[in-house]
Amino acid sequence: MKPILGILLGEATGIGPEIIAKMCYYNKLSPYCRPILLGDARVLQMGKEIAGVDFSVKIVECAAQASWGEELPMIDLKNLDPAEIKLGEVNESSGRITGGQLTTAMKLCQRGEIAGFMYAPLNKEALQRGGYDFKDEHKIFTHYLETTGLYGEMNMLNDLWTSRVTSHIPLKDVAGNISIDKVVGAIELAHDTLSRAGFNKPRIAVSAINPHGGEGGLCGREELDLIGPAVKEAQDKSIAVTGPHPSDTIFLNAFNGQYDAVVTMYHDQGQIAMKLKGFQYGVTVAAGQPYPITTPCHGTAFDIVGKGIANIDATEQAVKIAAKMAKTNNVK
Amino acid sequence: MVEGKKKLIGITMGDPAGIGSEIAVKALENNKFYEECIPLVVGDRVAIEDAIGFTNSKLKVNVVKKPAEAMDKKGTINVLDMNMLSPGDWTYGQVGKLPGKAAVSYIEKAIELAMNDELAAVVTGPIHKRSINMAGCPHAGHTEIFAENTGCKDYAMMLADDSLRVVHVSTHVPLRVACDRVKKDRVGAVIKLTYDAMKKLGISEPRIAVAGLNPHAGEESLFGEEDTKEIAPAIEEAVLQGMMVEGPIAPDTVFAKAVGGQYDAVVVMYHDQGHIPMKTLGFKLDNKTGKWNAVSGVNVTLGLPIIRTSVDHGTAFGKAGKGTANSESMEEAIEMAIQMSKN
User: Fold this and answer.
1) For burial by CB atoms within 10 Å, which of A233, B33, B200, B307 has the most?
2) Is the CB of A272 less than 8 angstroms away from the CB of B251?
3) Closest chain B C-alpha to A321 CA, distance in angstroms
4) pTM, 2 dp
5) Quick one: A242 exposed, middle or buried, by C-beta within 10 A (0-12, 13-18, 19+)?
6) pLDDT at A215
7) For residues B45 and B106, is the Cβ–Cβ distance under 8 A?
8) Residues of chain A with confidence (pLDDT) below 50
């Protein structure tokens, strides 16, 4: 039986509602899961109008009432009138309601009504203004799900997964923020997440930080002192991991299928290559959380919202991965 | 050099144990270069003859003592014979002191001739760092040798292929040091070097993008101050001087914009910031093997008093002496040298 997944409309002032409307209309949900839509039915109606599609949904109170026939089930949160918001703008009340979607979905996971969820893009600023004062959504998940252990963002594009040891910090602080423990942690998180996504013994490559991988200490020592020992430690835990590899060629081998995941040391190391390879189709996975939670990598796209031209490929990928992870999910 | 006359382009043979001799021969099989220049290999006759042998080339060797003797004739490969080697002095695929010494001598000779205006540009074949170090040359590579031999202090590495050109503020230094190198004066100097290089390539109004250093180009100094304190003021100054320069732009989006045709070149802040997009874009699917290969572009040293372009790959010891090397990067490097010596 396909897993039951929550499908969240996301930030109402962004492209989320029109994307979810297209997903329903073009039958991009049911091949992977038994979807339950989550949000305000009037916002979905707005999305349908923008996308130029029409279909009807069956409003349910809880998952137990849901059935999956002609009409998809929707839990109507009845909390946002689209007349009160303006597309393409950060809106405090919309942010608060988006946060409410997330907490509702997490509760449904904890009650066992849904196995996980896929959310359409959020707007961090709106969430923060709406009272969800967290640095990012991964911190929201961790807070409400009381997640213990390692967690973080992983990205997936064309079957290649990436994660990073450091993220939104100045580049000059990156080297000082690399430690054996953090690199081992990132490798383990990648290993666990890919295992949950159905990989048997995922092959992980770890990137170096310095040019040419530090050239044996001639061009920086982090590879010898920190990254190398971390890779060794992870290998000793029977993880199929290699590195450190020079970061300008690691993606050549990765795109050739030699690795399933690449662990990078800093934000742009992976982002530059992935964005050139079509990041608009990428998926973000909330790694380390007890339930599968995914979203497309792209944002709310305020520049094209309301035109009905938003692409749904990344969202479809996100649903696919959440469903795959739900099948193999072991609640921690 | 006389105006209107075909320019003499020197090609250093590189390490004899690598693929340098082979790619020089293969590149010069292409007659088109003789329409635009007179190529002259600075190397060893015996090594070039060996490469002609194992690639089954029909090129005829014309040994010269000075560049002026080079023949403007298709099917001819002009060789300035440095006479460093005898047959058996090198083994393909192996490092060695003598091949290293020979490789350095070709470079030094070519620099001397170019400084003397006897060559219009120098295209360098691949050398092996360990071999040149064994031979007593302490440098990391060509760039340092060229800087020292031409007395140049302000230079920068450009990588270029069909779709993208990047110019580096720093190259072979640890990432920690690279961040310290991002100073207003240096960034400004590299912008100017980039501007001049684009002019030399025949672009009348170059559009230059400058990548930020930090994630999202620092996002208003939330993630680091270099973008606002060092990079932005350098850009402002360049704009005041009349150059079309934009930035700092988020490092993960600037390359897609450049590839899309919005900019002629991107100034990058550190080695991998420029190398990751170049190598990612350089991937080409080999239909025979079904594998992606990194087909490198051209490496150009900007700021030297002479023109120097280079292949952007190594000696490829694994392929050396077998006749299977790809000369594409060498051909692009020759083409770029011709272009730059015109303007």
Assistant:
1) B307
2) yes
3) 25
4) 0.88
5) middle
6) 85
7) no
8) 330-332
